[in-house]
Amino acid sequence: MTLAPVGSVVSDRTTCWLLGDQLNHDLDVLDAADDVLLIEAHGFADRKPYHAHKLTLVFSAMRHFRDELRERGHDVTYVRADSFGEGLDEFLARRGKASDRDGADRDGVDRDGDDAPTLRLMRPASHGAGERLRKLVAERGGTLELVDNELFWTTPADWRAWTGDEGGGDGEPLLDEDGTAARTFRQENWYRRVRRETGVLMDDGDPVGGEWNYDDLNQETPPDDWEPPARSAFEPDDLTRETHAWVRQRFDTWGNDSLDGFAWPVTRDEAREALDRFVRDGLPAFGRYEDAMVGGEPFLSHSLLSPAINLGLLDPREPVRAVERAYEARGVEPGGYDPAERGASQGETATSLDDFGDVTDVDSPDGAAPGAAARDDELAPVPLNAAEGFVRQVIGWREFVRHVYREAMPELADANQLEQERELPPAYWDGETDMRCLSEAVGHVREFGYAHHIERLMVLSNFALVYGADPVELNEWFHLGFVDAYHWVTTPNVVAMGSFGTDALSSKPYASSGSYVNRMSDHCADCRYAVSRTTGEGACPFNALYWDFLKENEETLRGTGRMGLMYSHVDDKGDEEWASIRERAARVRELAADGEL
């Protein structure tokens, strides 16, 4: 905790400062505060063209949260400013005027007018943000206490216990200048530890069902006649409409700027309703089809909860426990439910989270609260591979990348071990390409500020990787375009995993030819490029780029974990075939750079 400047009087009134991604009513840090500060800082959105839906979501959620806190009896100061520094200045000015007007501070204690404010803030997830904000407060004569961020399930201490680094590190950076990691981390091992520690989907110390991971059952594509459940949609209220109109007038944005397609939850109640809907309708089919890509279906059975979780509207424990309880009430063996045979949920009546227990008591000793599932016979079964797959995304991957980000920053942001420096093709901004898979994925981002995880990794990141795009530029594109994107989550996912800028969290690049897209989607059947061909006019661009990528980065990748088979295929190709591949790859890059692919 930073000491107050010499000569100042520290106030015994503590203000809870909450950021725009900490919008949760049930925080301990909030309960312990005398009043609340929210600063709606706009400067970041002036510098870059963010998606209009992202800005509308963040600012509308903050404004709704402000009003809800006041309805709950909290004393809230809400400041709109270009920067946090200016916001703090206005907060302090308002505080001083209140003291001068009343002759005493709001707690009724007489002051001399120059007492130093005390603020408490949950440590921001973005690297260095906490220290920067503490400095801003100190420069204004106050004290900022940073406390653990309650909106992650695991803590830095939990991570250190897993890595064996109880002392907190020796101060040496995790990454070298070339992106090579001095120490590597693997999500599967972390995931198993968290499962054991939290007891999620555990049975007397063993994973429910006997296996930790059912990913091999989650790689099917749905039949043509299957219809996914409808997306949870929330009609924008007056405050959201007012916020959206202001965003359009105030900022230069990117993507769809109409409110017609905006359906994200902006309040706690809406976020809970979205979770209800997913557990009821989406979860049964989620596992089996979670890696599928279907033309005209941007959402399939995905939860669409990441924006609400990353804003704080949902605590990550809530969806995990709700899914776990749904499995306890409606569970069947892995792969034991075929959504194509049943279709969407058979029951039209809504099912509340309360039917699966009181999820607000997420840390009760037995992992569950009183309450039994209602109307189970009207709801589709929940196969274990669906429940486990969702749990792995939240307590496995989300928590994992947060800690890798903490460990690897600031070097992670610029990691580029493959030395890729090409600019992103124009198709990432305008979506204009004859590549059906890329056009579809970019179109989803432009329209909704969203694309699901396989589109992100195996289309958007994969193409940029084999094309040779600069990881920094790709990371910024994700950050600007996705409604759930923050620096702490995009950087490890995009720079480390998608671009293989470092080997800190993956032993191989997630690069593939068009065969993966063909296996997991229906895109190739309707694409003008032939996925069966590698070279020549009309060949799938992924194919030549993939082989050229392997050849171009052979010195770094040959011998890398799990790349042996691919390089055996590289070795099987003769000089003439390689000449054709390199020629086609060069042509693809030329067309892409010119916006003509």
Question: Can I get a quick summary?
Answer:
This protein has 597 residues and is an alpha/beta fold.
Any overview of this molecule?
The structure is a single chain. 45% of the residues lie in helices and 7% in strands. It has 597 residues and is of the alpha/beta class. The strands form 3 sheets. The chain has a 5-stranded parallel β-sheet. It has a two-stranded antiparallel ribbon with strand order 6-7. Helix 9 crosses helix 13 and helix 13 (384-408) crosses helix 18 (487-498). The longest helix is centred in the middle third of the chain and has 25 residues, at 384-408. The chain is globular and about 80 Å long.
Relevant terms:
597 residues; disordered N terminus; globular; alpha/beta; two-stranded antiparallel sheet
Biggest sheet descriptor: 5 strands, parallel
Instruction: Indicate the radius of gyration in whole angstroms.
Output: 25 Å
**Which band does the percent of strand residues land in?**
5-15%
Query: What structural category characterises the helix and strand content?
Result: alpha/beta
Envelope shape: globular
Kindly state the percentage of residues in helix: 40-55%
Layout of secondary structure:
Elements: E1 9-18, H1 28-31, E2 35-41, H2 43-47, H3 52-71, E3 76-81, H4 84-102, E4 115-122, H5 129-139, E5 143-147, H6 156-163, H7 187-198, E6 202-203, E7 206-207, H8 238-250, H9 268-289, H10 306-311, H11 317-330, E8 331-332, H12 339-342, E9 382-383, H13 384-408, H14 427-430, H15 436-448, H16 453-467, H17 471-481, H18 487-498, H19 514-520, H20 541-552, H21 554-557, H22 564-572, H23 575-593
Parallel strand pairs: 1-2, 1-4, 2-3, 4-5, 8-9
Antiparallel strand pairs: 6-7
